[in-house]
Predict the 3D structure of the following.
Amino acid sequence: MERLFFEILAEEAQKGNKPSNTFRAVSIKRVATAISEKFQVQCDAKHVENHFKAVKNTWKTICTIREESGLGLDDNMKMITCDKVTYDAIVTAHPKHGQFLNKKIDSYDEMVLVVGQDMATWSFARTFADIDLDDINEGSMPLNFDVEDVCEERSNASSSGTSKHKRKNVQENVEDDHIHFVGAKLGEIAEALKKFTEDLTPYLYEQVMSMENEGFNDDFLCEVFDFLAKNELEAKAFLAKKTKHRKIWLQKFAQR
């Protein structure tokens, strides 16, 4: 059931049916119907939504663990690694975190698509997650602030009066500071996206060519790579699949 749950929602995410942090009702219903029919059980939208919440909590835990110091990230195995001392320290403080350390995280690629970022690469997750977007609203003044309050606070910190001219200057200065701050954050995002694009190509090539171990011809796989490199959605879907599903996709591709 878990595999079917992830497969369908990952596909729905690729179709654009995850406009925010949740899925459209039609996607949830599709999962419920598929599970009910395949496993001959009663599964409704509420069951799917509850499991989706559980998966989000699991993803949140994984993200929390990744922020711990002294940890490594195995890009190929999708594994959080650490030495025994670090492992013991983390598990002592958080016993449930042990299940995600030094073990391959099942369905990681699918979780990235379903509840995380939109591309299953550790490097992208690390780069983008390092940008704290919450800082845009913390330590800076929102654009819809109360000018009177700001003027009052700043006038209390100085001996000058509170003339209209000074209030106008305060407003302009705060707005300029906020715009510059937001601009800096957007610059970080652009840099992260640039790094993501740079990292994706060798990662995609590595994953495609690894299928040579499954009996596929080297020249054929190069042709597949060229195709996927030009088709982002197809590449995402390929990377999200397990080996057996990649084999099926490659067999179908060979028949085109």
The beta strands are 72-74, 79-81.
